[in-house]
Write a structure and sequence with these properties.
Strand order of the largest sheet of chain B: 1-2-3-4-5
Structural class of chain A: mainly alpha
Strand content of chain A: under 5%
Largest interface: A-B, 28 and 27 residues
Largest sheet of chain A: 2 strands, antiparallel
Number of helices of chain A: 10
Number of strands of chain B: 5
Oligomer: heterodimer
Strand order of the largest sheet of chain A: 1-2
Helix content of chain A: 55-70%
Structural class of chain B: alpha+beta
Chain lengths: 229, 210
């Protein structure tokens, strides 16, 4: 794999086809756990790990994939990987696991992962599939962390609180900026507002970029390639 | 080979590989996970035993009371009996307050043998973030107001939130949750007062270390 294409794939996952911002996949965990930076980043990293491994495994088995059994095979692979990640979290990050609760096993149902298996990994080489999983996973993880950071700041008045969930030890308050926040931001509606702002922000930036270089427009066909769920 | 057989074999093979993957991960992690769970249990229990000296681990002498048991809640109540040199010194009782704002609240009540509260902790809840969730000790000091109180101090009618004419603080903006938790604590203390000898007599004493 050439270096340039890896960078290109990273850019695709992080920005152009970001699973959360553009494909709007995996919204259930995105909206549910992003009440703080540590929760968003924790689930983001878990999803990233599953996505890299599942893309790699699906790509490795793509020669034997018959169309009629491909979906059960994706489900098998993804479910096993999520179980492994859950065990790893329970063993090494028990407090983070408790904080994320049901959303770690629910990574199985994150359609961003099945979508990458179907759209990309089942058609490309192992190296490219892993690169794609890494780019997409990182894009998703950064979005989760960013929304978590934003909601925590607005809703709780703090930044990076409870980082001890990653490293262990006594509870850490993080940076306290205000004693109290605007509660709505950590309640479920706040998740929708935050995501809407992020999507709007991305679209605005894209539009501005397009206006600057009229030749380099986003091809409309690229955007229709993905099924929205 | 016909295509159905081929699909079956492929699926079976991949299922076997995936199962092996999970089995290996489990092998590598299960000891740590069990340790973590034990440590977590101890960690969640011990803070409710402020000022009590005890031998061994709290989670050793566990007693599960299936419903109906007379304690708050309709699911099983769990009692951890705490001993010092073979004599009972305190008990930790996990009960359920059924009338929380967003479903049941699991409460751990630590009570010394003489009846005073050694600590209250919220084990599980789904109360509203920022309002009812301040019952949890990492959100506010609310649970600490029960420390060292007993059902004679204040007398039983005082074991209510102030809005209901009692002596304990509610939370501003949320009174349903504190009311439910307080009621569960009160009922637990009354139960312990009437049943403590039976509780400590039930089952075996923890094994003595030689």
């Amino acid at each position: 794999m050439r270096r340039g294409s890896f960078v290109e794939q990273l850019r695709t996952g992080l920005w152009r086809d970001n699973p959360g911002l553009v494909q709007l996949l995996g919204l259930c965990p995105l909206l549910a756990v992003t009440t703080s930076f540590v929760n968003g980043a924790g689930l983001g990293i878990a999803t990233l790990a599953v996505l890299v491994a599942s893309n790699g495994l699906v790509s490795a088995t793509r020669r034997w994939l018959r169309p009629e059994i491909r979906i059960p095979i994706y489900v098998l692979i993804i479910a096993s990987l999520v179980t492994c990640i859950e065990l790893v979290f329970k063993a090494w990050f028990p407090t983070l696991d408790r904080s994320l609760g049901i959303f770690i096993p629910l990574i199985v149902t994150n359609c961003a992962i099945v979508a990458r298996a179907e759209v990309f990994a089942s058609r490309h080489s192992i190296a490219r599939s892993i690169a794609d999983g890494f780019g997409m996973g990182l894009g998703f993880a950064l979005l989760l962390s960013g929304i978590g950071l934003f909601r925590e700041l607005i809703g709780n008045g703090s930044l990076f609180s409870r980082m001890d969930l990653f490293v262990g030890g006594p509870p850490l308050p993080g940076l306290v900026i205000a004693d109290q926040g605007w509660l709505l931001a950590i309640l479920p509606p706040g998740a929708f507002f935050a995501l809407a702002l992020a999507v709007a922000g991305k679209n605005t930036l894209d539009r501005r970029q397009r206006r600057k270089e009229p030749g380099a427009r986003l091809a409309p066909s690229r955007r229709r390639k993905f099924v929205r769920r | 080979m016909n295509p159905v057989m081929k699909s079956m074999l492929t699926l079976g093979l991949i299922a076997a590989i995936c199962t092996a993957l999970v089995a290996v991960t489990w092998q590598l992690t299960h000891a740590r996970i069990a340790d973590n769970q034990q440590a977590l249990l101890e960690q969640s229990l011990q803070p409710a035993l402020a000022g009590i000296e005890f031998d061994g681990k709290v989670s050793q002498s566990r007693l599960v009371l299936p419903p109906p048991h007379g304690l708050p809640g309709q699911d099983a109540a769990i009692v951890y009996r705490v001993y010092r040199e073979g004599r009972p010194v305190a008990a930790l009782i996990a009960v359920t307050a059924r009338d929380g704002y967003a479903g049941p609240v699991r409460v751990l009540v630590g009570v010394a043998y003489d009846g005073h509260v050694t600590g209250v902790r919220i084990l599980e809840h789904r109360e509203t973030p920022g309002l009812g969730d301040r019952i949890a000790e990492d959100r506010s000091d609310w649970v600490y107001q029960f420390d060292d109180r007993s059902i004679g101090d204040p007398p039983l009618p005082g074991w209510r939130i102030r809005r209901d004419g009692g002596e304990f603080d509610q939370l501003s903006g949320a009174s349903v949750t504190p009311r439910a938790v307080l009621k569960a604590i009160r009922e637990t203390l009354v139960y312990f007062d009437g049943h403590k000898d039976a509780l400590f007599a039930a089952g075996d004493l923890p094994e003595e270390d030689e």
